[in-house]
Amino acid sequence: MPSGPRGGSAIDAAIDERTAVGFVAICRADDPLGRYLTGRDLGVDVVYVRVAGETHLRVPSTVDVPEVPNASVRVDDRPAGQAAAAILADHAPDGTVLAPRTIPHDTALHLESAGYELSSTTAVRDARAIKDTEEIDAIEGVQRAAKRGITAAAVILADAHVEDETLVWGDAPLSTERIRRQVNATLAVEGVDSVGATTVTTGTRGGRDAAVELVPGEPIVVSVSPRGPAGYRGALARTFVVDADGGWERRAHVACDAARDVSLVEANAGADAGFVGSEIRAETAAFGFSMNDEVTRDVGGGIGLAAREAPQLDGDTELVEGNVVRVRAAISHADNGRVELTDVLVVGEDGPRMLGDAPTGLDPSRWSE
Amino acid sequence: MPSGPRGGSAIDAAIDERTAVGFVAICRADDPLGRYLTGRDLGVDVVYVRVAGETHLRVPSTVDVPEVPNASVRVDDRPAGQAAAAILADHAPDGTVLAPRTIPHDTALHLESAGYELSSTTAVRDARAIKDTEEIDAIEGVQRAAKRGITAAAVILADAHVEDETLVWGDAPLSTERIRRQVNATLAVEGVDSVGATTVTTGTRGGRDAAVELVPGEPIVVSVSPRGPAGYRGALARTFVVDADGGWERRAHVACDAARDVSLVEANAGADAGFVGSEIRAETAAFGFSMNDEVTRDVGGGIGLAAREAPQLDGDTELVEGNVVRVRAAISHADNGRVELTDVLVVGEDGPRMLGDAPTGLDPSRWSE
């Protein structure tokens, strides 16, 4: 399991390069930034200050002080910017302080009024985009659990039977919500958290928040993005159809599968990330779907401690070894519904590699564990 | 289920009162702010602008545009502050724009360079602190699911037997991690998400992230804070001991139970929130525990879409009807371990009321559903 703080050396290098005094970030309890920078799930809002090669954390007096190795943790009830300035002042009375450009405005103003000049840095974002072996292993572990979650859905669908044009499982009609709960129970037993990210949607009648009864012939998309014990996210989506009639949904599924294959050809170190995204969309559309109306615009992007992080699959970023990327091919149609395939790949020395080995089949009875 | 946008009228009132042009907030995908302001789980970062009584949302072109009733949703790839300024400019070329004081610094700077003066408002934070009936019902539903999750742990512990001074369940030693997974599976089947907030810790040997084998006589704390289908969080923690010897842990448990009762006496509308927090700590300490070293400093605070939100149980905030508050009594000792009881109560017209009805007993075999 990835442990210990990360990003410190990247921050120190940025401080050196910019002749800055230090670095300040606000880690909110629900933002994985704190986990990345300290190696711990802090569970509370903390002020993070890096100065002279050391990490200082400040928490309010209303929480229990977390134990964080390799960091000085103290209580300070002043506003975050003032608490940070007090630490910086031990080393330099003024100078440039680096911070993410999204640092809260009030924190920035407090630092400025304490005499520091603020300058934005992408050092942490850039460091997070390149995963080490421990991090890749952690994400691969989550992907294996994600596969078992999706497998639970496939087993239920394979086990369901048709009565009066609806799917029945056990003694009751099968709904998206019943499947969602079973998928989440499987994820829990596998030791990963569903974090509200599991969705089961169907055809044109289903929503993210609604329980919809399932019918044969309509595509059912099962999507999970669980968080593993070390905080890293996975992402896996598969589409199933019970009693497919072989029409639109098969063609859409072939297109998504082809787009998935394209990601495994194109996502190489040195490739332009925006080009990879365009290629995924273009391949999906090549099977006769409208690029504007039917093919998803969200073809994925970096994944790690956050479900969405750098690199984005647009713009002119260059993919590098260690990037871990969610790749997503999806097609929606007002009458026929939606088909989606989502996976996670790592940009490796020898090209891209899918993490986990989930099959892609549309028929749940042929899904193999 | 709570649905539809909230906070719009509070924002409009603040805009009127401050003679401002509009209100801007950045809703990140992992922050429940967007869910509150739009009534939807957006799943992506959005720029929220309220102007002339209407809601405008801006998303980047790399995501699928979410459907949000009662809001104009458009794609805009400019930085958030520029996208917001473009909407504001349709109504006023300059003037005061309200924003939460934690708005990202770069967004604030972009708004300022577009000609607007930024002024902070607590309108949304204050509105979120007062829950309506739908919201209270949602939290109560999550608390019922939380109780079933804790019940799963009690059932396992009541079913475990002692072999060679360790607890055994089924064919294998019982660890904190085995219980955690079963608790999370129960939460999943109940339709709520564990969101990484379930912890099972024991004695002096367990950590948040480690699997520790359980032994008789040592207190085991099971803590959950699940998220329900409408996004609202619950919070429930109970302490169990198998084969208690009746010493430290019983005294600590009586103290926590008494402190819990104090919250039900003191958390009335009009009471000082900081005083309620102090009383919880004082009552815990009254059973012979050290206020500085043993009694927790985290005695709770507001809960809703976020696990921690207003009101805090410190400072001189006044509790008002509709506040929903996590109350927590906990005692730690270097040799004896930790005991904790956490619940959620609502400040009602007729005084505080616990949400859910989880018993507090220390003996898992006497835990009643």
UniProtKB/TrEMBL annotation, chains A, B:
Residue ranges of domain Peptidase M24 in the record: 201-348
Database matches in InterPro entries: Creatinase/aminopeptidase-like, Pept_M24, Peptidase_M24B
Pfam families to which the protein is assigned, alphabetical: Peptidase_M24 (PF00557)
Top-level taxon of origin: Archaea
SUPFAM superfamilies registered for this protein in UniProt: Creatinase/aminopeptidase
Record protein name field: M24 family metallopeptidase
